[in-house]
Amino acid sequence: MGTSPTHPSLPGLGQGGGTALLRLLADAVPVLLAYYEVPGLRCVFANQRYAQYSGMAVDALIGKTVRDAVGERAWQQILPYVERALQGEAVQYTREHVQDDGEARMMEITLMPHFDRDGDGQPHMVGAFVLINDITHHWAAERAVRQSEERMRKFAEATEEGIVFHREGIILDGNEALQRLTGYPLDELVGHPIIDFVEPGHHEAVREYVQHGREDPYELAIRHKDGHTIQIEAVGKTMPQAGGAYRVVVARDITARKQAQARADFLAGHDTLTQLPNRRSLMQQLARTLADAQHWRRRAAVLFIDLDHFKTVNESLGHEAGDQLLCEMARRLQGSVEAGDFVARVGGDQFVAVLPDIRNRTAAATLADTLLERVRAVYAIDGTPLSLSPSIGISVFPEDGYAPDELLRRADAAMHRAKESGRGTRQFYAPGMEGQPTEILQLEHQLREAVFQEAFVLHYQPQVEVSSGRLVGFEALVRWQHPQRGLIGPDEFIPVAESRGLITPIGRWVLREACRQVKAWHDEGLPRVPVAVNLSPLEFRQRDVAAEIAAVLHATGLEPRYLEIEITESALMWHTDQTRETLQALQHLGVGVAVDDFGTGYSSLAYLKRYPLDKLKIDRSFLTEAPANGDDVAIVTAIVQLAHSLQLQPVAEGVETAEQIDLLRRLGCGLAQGFGISQPMDAERTRAWLQALA
User: Fold this and answer.
1) At residue 242, does pLDDT exceed 80?
2) Residue 70: HSE in the Cβ half-sphere, 13 Å Cα cutoff
3) Within the chain, which residue ranges are assigned CATH 3.30.70.270?
4) Which CATH class is domain 448-693?
5) Which residue, 87, 371, 386, 514, could crosslink 476 as a Cys pair with Cβ 3.0–4.6 Å?
């Protein structure tokens, strides 16, 4: 096979210039190139790079066998590949080659059989080309990738965070932690879009994150296989790869963190004992409520609620019992308000209810009375029955202020007035209740002087029969004859009188003077009609009312049938046995009893059946917009029908128009009073009215 060691010829390639050109090309290419003849496997041709790889000069390499060229150790390693090549198979393999300087190189070897034709034209193998590529760089890069992937795999299996590999949103792989996190085995994850496991509300965020190749952490929610939602924090990284970049996403379960944060947020705005909103949340809610009320031109109310004598519970039964009582209080308050109302605990035994939309002050009073009733119901703390009453102060937007702190402060002031008035009741805020101690003291002093001097006068408002206009009675209304200010209405001084213990002497004077005056008119021969006198709840509870009335009737000589006592619903709710005994005593005297302002308090059929009563006075607030307001008409209709069914006489207050009188006539309401009939008159004008009827 070739005779010139320096210019060998390759079978089938010719001699001369062709060989020189082949040599030039062989030395120029970046691969190691040699040709071995068959059958001896002796080197016939080699380029400079191949000779250097073998550690010889080209001239020294020519004529040597493969075994001589590579050495015995290498020969044994490559022999299987050589044998395959001798069978006519093109063979490619890689092997590590350590250079003289100790550096390891990775070589890719290709054995390419070379065939020629014999005299008969049949192909037969005459040699083999050897091509060797140094792929150390590529091999090192791939090894680095493999090592990186191995490290990633080990890390993925070791961490408790879910790791998912995906390309363009399609899951390629995931670790065991991911399977635990989602509840899906790996075969149910691989090949599926990531979006399939994400809660719908987060789909858009996930698509945007993936499409833009973002690598910042973000939060989303995924769906566990059993259906429950898991809050996670995810961060993705793009990993380059020859076959196309893929993404690695690390998912961390942040449910516990979210719960802790939610708990912290809750505690920041709520009371830890009762779980009600705290003062901070109250002020925020109140600000929103008032802004809405102002925008929609609605009324809103603030109820400041304080437990009476709560300190006694702590001192006698211990603070644990007190805590149980506060929690029960919270439950009752929440169960008593409407869905849109707001209840908060502002400290100690004090609570606040915000009513965002009330029609009028009567609606606020109705809810306050409901709270009074439900809170007063007996508690059982560790087997010990307890019964506490609340005192409630009420402020109304916009009449009592526009700012949250202003309304809260004034409701608080009204609550303290309720406590001063005997506790267990409600009070609306009135000017002078807060922040003016000097004026209050001065007013109290002047009122005491008025009581001493009996500087009061009575005005009388007629009650008439609706069907005929016939006079059937009067209601006596007290006025204070102030030395500087003139006549002062009861709304200004009765709350002070109740809180300062002056209501009893004033009430006694009113009762005595009304009975004296009516008896004097009777003695003049004027029409004999009864007079109605109001008793405050405090008077009704604290006095022996029946005995005092009997004494006054005896002293003035007025027949009992010409006297009526008007009491509010709240007065009937206290000490029911005592109340029943008092009313029965009045009934035996022959004195009539009317329930004043009916519909603004408890409006309970139970007490209407339980007690001996004569009249129901329909509160003026239900007639203000009647008959135009259908709701008011419905309420008035219901009260009239209720009175008739219980054999009570309905009386409408606050009648001002002919249309209202027509409505009452159609409904069968027997009696009425109001400015549309007559304003309250002093004694002289009332006497003239009676004379005109005589």
Assistant:
1) no
2) 21
3) 270-428
4) alpha beta
5) 514
CATH architecture, range 140-259: 2-Layer Sandwich (3.30)
Domain with CATH 3.20.20.450 in the chain: 448-693
Helices and strands of the chain, counted as H and E runs: 24, 26
Antiparallel, parallel or unpaired: β 123-134 and 486-488: unpaired
What are the residues facing 458 on neighbouring strands? 478
Please state, in angstroms and rounded to a whole number, the distance separating the CA atoms of residues 357 and 339.
12
Domain with CATH 3.30.450.20 in the chain: 17-134, 140-259
- CATH class given for the domain over 270-428: alpha beta
Q: Which amino acid is at 298?
A: R
SS3 string of 548-615? Answer: HHHHHHHHHCCCHHHEEEEEEHHHHHCCHHHHHHHHHHHHHHCCEEEEEEECCCCCCHHHHHHCCCCE
Instruction: Give the DSSP H/E element, type plus range, for residue 439.
Output: helix 437-453
pLDDT, tens only, 456-501 = 999 999 999 998 889 999 999 999 998 888 888 888 888 888 777 7
The CA radius of gyration of the chain, in Å to the nearest whole number, is 52
Nearest to residue 36, comparing CAs of 122, 107, 132?
132
For residue 12 the two structure tokens come to: 């089938």
pLDDT in tens, 97-150: 877 777 788 889 999 999 988 777 788 899 999 999 888 888 777 777 676 666
Check residue 96 and give its pLDDT: 84
